[in-house]
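Exam review. A common question shows you a sequence with its structure tokens and asks you to describe the fold in words. Practice with the pair below. Do the first one on your own.
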Amino acid sequence: MESNIIKHETGTIIICGGNPLEGCPKDWDEAKSIIEKLNEGKEDRDPQWSFDCGFKLDYDGGLLSISSRFYPPKTHYGETWDGTVHIYLLDKTIEEKKFDCQTLDELKKQVDEYVNSIIEKVQSVFK
């Protein structure tokens, strides 16, 4: 009987999915080598291949991201909160919007509305 299979009167438990078959990594060094080949040529922000416990294979990563910077009212920057929101698909800018607001509350309201409109656009594509 295999050491990773436990038989019980109420059922069978297979620990780590059983023993490795052809193509499954035998250890973490081999898994690391496979992952390096699968992710060759990918940028850090691209979806990446990885092995989880029991050598289950994952392909994970973000497709869309938001990055922004807003400058506060200061003598060097000016009297308003101003800056830009960038929307990225993978690592490429697909949309950007500039903001120039008198108050932090106004900035928050406008940015939240803008980002929510982007979320609604994306969700509508997948309905």
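Now try the second one, then compare your answer with the model answer below.
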Amino acid sequence: MQPWQQQFAQPVGGQAGTRFAPPSPNAPAIIPFGPPAHSPFGPPAHAPSPFAPPGFAPPAYQQPWGAPTPAKKPPAMMIIILSVSLVLGIAVAAAVATGLNIAPWSQSGPGPVPGGNKGNRYTQGPPDTNPADPPTPTTWDQVDAYLLNNPIYDQHLPKVDCRLGTLDLSTAPTEEIEKYLNVFVDCLMYAWYGPMIDAGYELPHPSVTVYTEPINTRCGMEDMQNAFYCTGDQQIYYAQDMLTLFPQSMRALPYLVESVLAHEFGHHIQYRTGIFDSSWDYETQAQEQGQTAEAMRFNRRLELQADCLDGLFLAAVADSSGFTDEDKKNVLSMYDIAAPSTPESDDHGTATNRKNWITQGLNSDTPGVCRTYEANDEEVS
């Protein structure tokens, strides 16, 4: 048993073996992304966060607890913001997604190589703009099973024949960026589809919407210099000026944006495998008990796991896309820029631990190396 299982053995406001009630719409929210405003590769949040930017107030979590009902219910409202003045942050927001018609890839452009992924079972198609609800734990035993013994941990990512292209995302027109990122999602789908199906899960295909001005979402108005995964519609959003968060010398480097997107897709994997909701249960309980530090620790476990899943994908496409040691060095350098400025803003982990967990993924092909919920506190600080 993990120490946090002993500490949070009973739900707040409920009986053992049942899920506790969500915070009221007027309660202080949870989670977090980073330096008091936004933080690096942020986590999904069910409700407004005390760590979110001033004035930011997404609607409270609306999904009812308890056993899932046969009828489709509104998806959970969560947010992860990737926007800060000096620190890279990313968000998960419940926003309205628009379906995109993706042009077929070409041999010279980004995306999967035709005929090169026959064993991976995924068939390229349009994004799923009305995905089914993910699995939701209804007992504490299920919560622990999703976090500690999830079937996804036993799977292996195949090598994916995928070219990431040479588009300079810091200067390309918005339409080209959106096309590139949507085709890039096909690479992510090729890598993750088979392992997810083998683990017994569905994997809807998210779209990427690139926006050029603050966008009004279900979580409220989202600023520029931002990127986020939405659990409300299970789509991804990317601000056209996101790269301006980096120093000028880094903006044209390959794999930076791709790594950010792979991290956000990692939140999609967590959401579709029950890990996200399960982590949220413990985090909410810690917050309700006034244990903010423990709540932050659960947030870091979620975020550091997404970093590790990011690394797994980069490893899966490394051979075909020419991912070099220099590229790896550049990707790791992002975490120095995104390091928390104070202990209170440390909701994603130190630069050292973020590098450690993405490197865990880069050196492996199985999500089993991403068990942040079994790691000691120092490894998720």
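Model answer, second protein: Residues 292-321 form the longest helix (30 residues). Residues 10-108 have pLDDT under 50 and may be disordered. Full marks require stating both points clearly.
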